[in-house]
Amino acid sequence: MTDSPGSTRPARSERQAGTTTTLDPDVLASFERHRRELCAYAYRMLGSSFEAEDAVQETFTRAWKSYAAFEGRASLRSWLYKITTNVCLDMIDGPQRRARPMDLSGPSRPDAPIPAAQPDYVWIEPIPDGLAFGADPADHASAKDTLRLAFVAACQHLPASQRAILIMREVLRFSANETAEALTMSPASVNSALQRARATMSKVRPASTDRYDESDEHQRRLIDEFVAAFESYDMDSLTALLKADVALSMPPLELWVSGPENVAAFMLGHGHECRDSRLIPLVGANGLPAFGHYKPSGEPGRWVPWSITVLELEDNVIAGLNFFLDTDRLFPLFGLAPELREPAPA
């Protein structure tokens, strides 16, 4: 992971070193029960799945070191959230905020030159559902809307403390008193900051009607039709599935295009090397349908990583095509193989 310039944050391996060899198993198990929800919280705060994992590891390290002084004066869950909040506030580096390409500039022409890649700390990153959601389907349903890429990007517009307050109050449903305790503030200050956060979110958060439901037959058919159209590189079929103002983006590139015709032009122009790609379904990312996207290597029968592809749906059409190109980091995170090969003939 690349830290922002001037960052003094220790590397992940340094923070992990020595934290698992001396932990009492029962204490560690009590921490681990909260790992996924803490990771989801940290992800909403930081916009990075890698930084979220780092934040939870650092939380467990701090919690272990101060566990003797904990004494059960609050619930373990509230105490861990307090520590995670402080860790995230320490990690947020001044005014730098993660964004999506659509937040930084207007749409590009599909034939515009491809810009240089920006550093990874510029972008909102996807998070595997398995890192953020527990086994309870009800918890999954209630949490996934606030892990959407658009929501996480909107949160980045808030100052760090307002971000924490909004998430704790409106996503986690902490009381004003619990939130005040976590942030060492008064309840009145928490409520005032929440009102300011709501006002900002009302301006920057897009109105969204997307409701991805894995059990919805129409949505499953839409996803299947997208895969078939993309793998056959049938642009007529593909564009028929897209919303009129669909956005295609490819972090770490700032370039993005809007509209079905421009998507098709881009795919047939700059994106022509994706012809004959293979899409491997993932359990999900950000509560949305996602794929490991492999493109042809040039060697017959072999495909190499190209992107983690995340689809945004709205009103039973595809509203967003997100191709996250940092495969060196993201493919291992999602448990994907470094290449695909056709089986050898029997």
Automatic annotation (TrEMBL):
<keyword id="KW-0731">Sigma factor</keyword>
<comment type="subunit">
    <text>Interacts transiently with the RNA polymerase catalytic core formed by RpoA, RpoB, RpoC and RpoZ (2 alpha, 1 beta, 1 beta' and 1 omega subunit) to form the RNA polymerase holoenzyme that can initiate transcription.</text>
</comment>
<keyword id="KW-0805">Transcription regulation</keyword>
<dbReference type="InterPro" id="IPR007627">
    <property type="entry name" value="RNA_pol_sigma70_r2"/>
</dbReference>
<dbReference type="Pfam" id="PF04542">
    <property type="entry name" value="Sigma70_r2"/>
</dbReference>
<dbReference type="InterPro" id="IPR036388">
    <property type="entry name" value="WH-like_DNA-bd_sf"/>
</dbReference>
<dbReference type="InterPro" id="IPR014284">
    <property type="entry name" value="RNA_pol_sigma-70_dom"/>
</dbReference>
<feature type="region of interest" description="Disordered">
    <location>
        <begin position="1"/>
        <end position="26"/>
    </location>
</feature>
<keyword id="KW-0238">DNA-binding</keyword>
<dbReference type="InterPro" id="IPR013325">
    <property type="entry name" value="RNA_pol_sigma_r2"/>
</dbReference>
<feature type="domain" description="RNA polymerase sigma factor 70 region 4 type 2">
    <location>
        <begin position="150"/>
        <end position="201"/>
    </location>
</feature>
<protein>
    <submittedName>
        <fullName>Sigma-70 family RNA polymerase sigma factor</fullName>
    </submittedName>
</protein>
<dbReference type="InterPro" id="IPR013324">
    <property type="entry name" value="RNA_pol_sigma_r3/r4-like"/>
</dbReference>
<feature type="domain" description="RNA polymerase sigma-70 region 2">
    <location>
        <begin position="31"/>
        <end position="93"/>
    </location>
</feature>
<dbReference type="InterPro" id="IPR013249">
    <property type="entry name" value="RNA_pol_sigma70_r4_t2"/>
</dbReference>
<keyword id="KW-0804">Transcription</keyword>
<dbReference type="InterPro" id="IPR032710">
    <property type="entry name" value="NTF2-like_dom_sf"/>
</dbReference>
<dbReference type="InterPro" id="IPR052704">
    <property type="entry name" value="ECF_Sigma-70_Domain"/>
</dbReference>
<dbReference type="InterPro" id="IPR014305">
    <property type="entry name" value="RNA_pol_sigma-G_actinobac"/>
</dbReference>
<comment type="similarity">
    <text>Belongs to the sigma-70 factor family. ECF subfamily.</text>
</comment>
<dbReference type="Pfam" id="PF08281">
    <property type="entry name" value="Sigma70_r4_2"/>
</dbReference>
